[in-house]
Predict the 3D structure of the following.
Amino acid sequence: MKNLIKLSVSALAVAGVLALNGCGSDSSTTPPTPEPQPTVLTGIFSDSPVAGIGYETTDHSGVTDAQGQFSYNEGEAVEFYIGATRFPSVMGQAEVTPMDLYQTDSANHTGVINTLRLLQSLDTDNDPENGIQLAEDIHVTLAGHEIDPTADNFDEQAEQALVTSGGTAEELVDADDALAHFGQSRAYQLTDLTGQWHTVFFTIPVAGTYSQDAFSYAVEEWSVDAEANVTMVAKVKSDGELDTDTFKADLSNTGMLSFAEVENLDMGLSSQKDKIANYFTEDNEQELGLSIKLAGDQQLSDLEGLWWGTGIETPVSANFNQNEFGVWLDKVVVDAQGKADITELTVGNKQAETEVETVQFAMDELGKITIEDDDESAVTYLSRGKDVILRHSYKDTRQNMSVLLKANIEPSLADLEGFWRLYNLQMPDDGSMNADGFGYWIVELDIDADGLATWSHVATSEDETLTEQSMQMQLVDGRFVGEEDNWLMNQDKDLMVVVSQWAEGDNQFSAYAIAIKQIKP
């Protein structure tokens, strides 16, 4: 029996081998190819990067990390959520914004605007400039709140959610502020202009003329809606006519603004979307202008730090005094209580005062600054980026435009890298009646990481338009120096002011320029 069982087992084994090799099978058959594994990619959800928003795909789920990153498979749809609020799904990609959620190429969409408002309102430190961080327990806290950003009663829904999450209804960010933040460092679009702006225009004669009537100024408040209708309200004007105008703005993909009704205007928006510089000429007058976007919740302590103070001064039409021409550069150190120590710096061949002047700043929530015992009539504001102060002031015989820029703590030549548009006014020196001393340049600058600036004139009062010139910038005592010019930069690295003085024979000249960094399309 034992041998029979052994034989039977052996026979079964042989039969199995024959079965495997039978039926025309080939012993060299290739094993089946494994299914390809999906490619896992990483994207970023951003207004600015949003940390803590929930996401789900077929194979991935979780919350975005501190950099706003989420995982998805190539070709996979992603759905984002906050508590019970589910946003429209979107195909996974390197960056997802609220514009992608609603499949629109304009931020001026109800769903986009309200999604931005919700995200910024839920930011734990209420400062979307440093990224948006949602609370770790936000999805549990708002599990019972479903919010529809396209609904007519969105504000009511969002306010209830804010209260539930420990905030207040008043913390709901308004549309203008939400759009203003979203516009930072993105391709230009008209909604970048939305918000409140403080604007100063400074006017002098054109080259070859010397009419004292050409020395004028205007301070305006601009209100820009989401359709880029710009309402300009005059607050101070040299002629005293406080008028109001409304223009429809257009904005190119290179950041250049235009108004259909206005000719001879060259106007550009900065890369941070919160500064506008321009040159305008008409009727033997030329004008340099700067606008800064405003924001609420400004605090006096925002002024603390080192600032470069720059200014341009000319006579006014009334009480004309030909000895009121000049530019200047100051070092201004401000403490958290608004006390400012001002030290004049040498500009060109003029010797600065060595005595330190101390003044006391005060400021309201909108960023309007006043100076204790100020002996000038002035309008002064801090920008929403908290690194530019724009001031206009005047007395009986002179007018000033001042731009103060908060300095970078550790500046480097690499800070200059980028594409810049520069607007420059030239004037004769104090006491000169040389009409040919007036002039202007509009210049394009392309600066590399080593501070080499290649530039060309877009327009100029000179006889010859120069192209493809170069200049090597240097870093001296925290300031950028190009040839005899001082270039001062703000912390956001998108605005520079240039002050210079020089001599040609017996004639003295000074110049004041504003340069904005722009995004290349």
Summary: Confidence is low (pLDDT under 50) at residues 1-27. Helices lie at 2-21, 98-101, 110-121, 138-141, 154-164, 175-182. The chain is about 10% helix and 40% strand. Residues 174 and 199 are 22 Å apart (CA to CA).
